[in-house]
Specification:
alpha/beta; 7-stranded parallel sheet; 7 strands; binds NADP nicotinamide-adenine-dinucleotide phosphate
Length: about 260
C-alpha cells in the first residue's frame, strides 16, 4: 500500500533534459512511469529518452518545446496525447535565472522574459492540460519554485518574484481543479548542483560558500536528492495533499 508504483502512468517533465529535471525523469521512470521529456533542444531530450529506455525499459518521448512560447506548449500537449493518450503527472520544472542584480540595475525586458518562462508558461501548460487530465480521472501537477521565492534575498528580485507568483498560481490551480481529481502542489528546492547553480557559482565569487552556509546541513545537494519529494507529490502517497509547498532545502535560512 505504501510502495510507489507509477506503472500505467504518464509523466511530463519540462526542463527534463538536464539538472533537476533529468533526475526527476529518471526517478519517475524507475518508479514505472512512461515519460515525456521537454526542453528547448530536441537532441538533449532525445539523449535522456535513450537513457530512460536503456536503464528502465519505460517508454520515453522527447519533445522540443520552449516554455515561453504558448504555441510550443499546445504542440507539446497534442504530441503527448497522440503518443500516450493521457498525462497523469505534469512537472513544471523548466526555469531560468540568467542574471542576478540590484533592482535598480535590471532591464524591463529581462523581467518579461523571466516571467514568460518561469510563470506564464507553467500557468498555460497546466491550464490547457487540466481539462484533458480531468477526462481520465485527474492527476498531479507539481510547480517547481525555489526557496528564494519563500525567503527572497538581495539580487534575486526577478527570479524570486516570478517564482512567488507561481506559488500563488499553485494555490489557485489547486482550488479550481480539486473537484476534478487534480492535485496541484509546489516544490521549492534549495541549492542543488546543476548547470543553473554551478553557472551562478562560477560567475559570482562566494556564491557556493554562501549557499552552503545558508543551509543547516552546510552543503549543496545532488540532483538525485530531488527524486524522493517528486515521487511523493506525483504519487497517491500524497493523495490528501494539494495546494501545498514542499520545501527541500537542507534547512535553508537567510543569513
Ligand atoms: N539547481 C538549484 O539549485 C535550484 C534551486 C532552486 C530552484 N531551482 C529550479 O529548479 C528548476 C530546474 O533547475 P536546474 O537547476 O535543474 O536548471 P538547469 O540545470 O539550468 O536546467 C534547466 C532545464 O530547463 C530547460 N530549459 C531552460 N530554459 C527553457 C525554456 N525556455 N523552455 C523549455 N525548457 C527550458 C533546459 O534545457 P534546454 O537548455 O534544452 O532548454 C534544462 O533541461 C528551475 O525551475 C529552477 O528555477 C533550481
Amino acid at each position: 500500500m505504501h510502495e510507489i508504483d507509477l506503472s500505467g502512468k504518464v509523466a511530463l517533465v519540462t526542463g527534463g533534459s538536464r539538472g533537476l529535471g533529468r533526475a526527476m525523469v529518471m526517478g519517475l521512470a524507475q518508479a514505472g512511469a512512461d515519460v515525456i521529456i521537454a526542453s528547448r533542444r530536441q537532441e538533449s531530450c532525445q539523449a535522456v529518452a535513450e537513457a530512460v529506455q536503456r536503464d528502465t525499459g519505460r517508454r520515453a518521448l522527447p519533445v522540443a518545446a520552449h516554455t515561453g512560447q504558448m504555441n510550443d506548449l499546445d504542440r507539446l500537449i497534442d504530441t503527448s496525447y497522440q503518443a500516450f493518450g493521457r498525462v497523469d503527472v505534469l512537472i513544471n520544472n523548466a526555469g531560468i535565472n540568467p542574471a542576478m542584480g540590484e533592482l535598480s540595475a535590471l532591464p524591463p525586458e529581462l523581467f518579461q522574459k523571466m516571467f514568460d518562462v518561469n510563470t506564464k508558461g507553467p500557468w498555460y501548460l497546466a491550464s490547457r492540460l487540466a481539462p484533458r487530465m480531468a477526462q481520465h480521472g485527474g492527476g498531479s501537477i507539481i510547480n517547481v519554485l525555489s526557496v528564494g521565492a519563500l525567503k527572497p534575498s538581495a539580487l534575486q528580485g526577478f527570479y524570486a518574484s516570478t517564482k512567488a507568483a507561481l506559488q500563488a498560481l499553485t494555490r489557485v490551480m489547486a482550488a479550481e481543479w480539486a473537484g476534478q481529481g487534480i492535485r496541484v502542489n509546489a516544490l521549492a528546492p534549495g541549492s542543488y548542483h546543476s548547470d543553473l547553480f554551478d553557472g551562478s557559482a562560477a560567475a559570482i565569487p562566494g556564491f557556493e560558500d554562501g549557499a552552503k552556509a545558508a543551509s543547516l546541513q552546510k552543503r549543496v545537494a545532488e540532483t538525485e536528492e530531488i527524486i524522493g519529494p517528486v515521487l511523493y507529490l506525483a504519487s497517491d502517497l500524497s493523495a490528501y495533499t494539494t495546494g501545498h509547498t514542499l520545501v527541500s532545502d537542507g534547512g535553508y535560512m537567510v543569513l
